[in-house]
Design a protein that fits this description.
The chain is an alpha/beta fold. The chain contains nine helices and five strands. It has a single domain, classed as Ribonuclease H-like superfamily/Ribonuclease H (Nucleotidyltransferase, domain 5), CATH 3.30.420.
C-alpha cells in the first residue's frame, strides 16, 4: 500500500532535524525524542518581576505527571541566583529575600538541571507563556534555541471546558469567562495551597490539568 505524502508531517520532521543539527549542546538532543506516553511536566517560575526582557528567574518548581497521578516524589525545586538582586516589591509576592537566593544556582546550571528533568515531556502550566519566555531567554545562550516540547496551557483548557457547556446563544455572544486561578480552582473543586511558591503553583496546575482531562474524557 502506497503511503500518502503529508506536507505538514514532512515539514515538521525537517524542522526537527534542522533544530537538532543546530543545537548548541548536542547532549540535550533527547528533548526532541518522542515523549513517554501519558507523561507531562507541570512547572512554574518565580521571578524578580514581569518584564521578560529585564527581570530574572529566582526559583523553579516542576513535578512530573504520569496518567492521573502527580509524582511528588519526582519533583524539582531550584533556587536561582539573580545577577541584579531582588526588589522589595518581588519579595512581597514570593517571599524570597536576597539572602534566600544568594546561594542559589547559576542560571546556566539551573537550566541544565531543568532540561534533564523535563526530557521530552510536554509542559503544563498556568499562564505558561510567561514562564517559557523567561526560561527560553536563559536557555537560548546555551542551545541557540528555546524549549522544543509541546506546551499545554491550563487556562486554555479551562476556557474550552466552560465554553463547551454553554448554550449556543451564550457561545455566540463572545462569553467572558473568568480565568483567574482562584476562580478556576474553586470551580473545579480543587484545593488551593496557601504557600505561594514555584513548586506549589506547579502542583496546583497539575491538579487542574488532570481534572480538566477527566472532564473532557481524555482520562479515566
Amino acid at each position: 500500500m502506497t503511503s500518502v505524502f503529508n506536507p505538514r508531517r514532512w515539514w515538521q520532521a525537517l524542522k526537527r532535524e534542522w533544530l537538532i543539527y543546530h543545537l548548541g549542546l548536542p547532549e540535550f538532543r533527547f528533548m526532541f525524542e518522542s515523549p513517554p506516553p501519558h507523561e507531562w511536566v507541570a512547572l512554574d517560575c518565580e521571578t524578580t518581576g514581569l518584564n521578560v526582557g529585564s527581570d530574572e528567574i529566582i526559583s523553579i518548581g516542576a513535578v512530573r505527571i504520569v496518567g492521573n497521578r502527580i509524582m511528588t516524589s519526582e519533583r524539582l525545586e531550584l533556587l536561582v541566583r539573580p545577577e541584579r538582586g531582588v526588589s522589595p516589591e518581588s519579595v512581597r509576592i514570593h517571599r524570597l529575600r536576597e539572602q534566600d537566593v544568594a546561594q542559589g544556582l547559576p542560571i546556566d546550571e539551573a537550566m541544565k538541571q531543568l532540561m534533564r528533568f523535563i526530557g521530552a515531556r510536554p509542559l503544563v502550566g498556568y499562564y505558561l507563556e510567561f514562564d517559557v519566555a523567561m526560561l527560553n531567554r536563559a536557555i537560548w545562550p546555551l542551545l541557540g534555541q528555546g524549549l522544543p516540547q509541546e506546551k499545554i496551557e491550563v487556562s486554555a483548557l479551562y476556557y474550552e471546558h466552560k465554553f463547551r457547556h454553554m448554550l449556543p446563544y451564550e457561545q455566540q455572544t463572545n462569553p467572558n469567562i473568568d480565568l483567574r486561578f482562584v476562580t478556576l480552582m474553586a470551580d473545579l473543586d480543587l484545593p488551593v495551597r496557601e504557600a505561594h511558591d514555584a513548586l506549589n503553583d506547579a502542583v496546583m496546575a497539575a491538579l487542574a490539568f488532570i481534572k480538566l482531562r477527566q472532564l473532557r474524557g481524555d482520562a479515566p
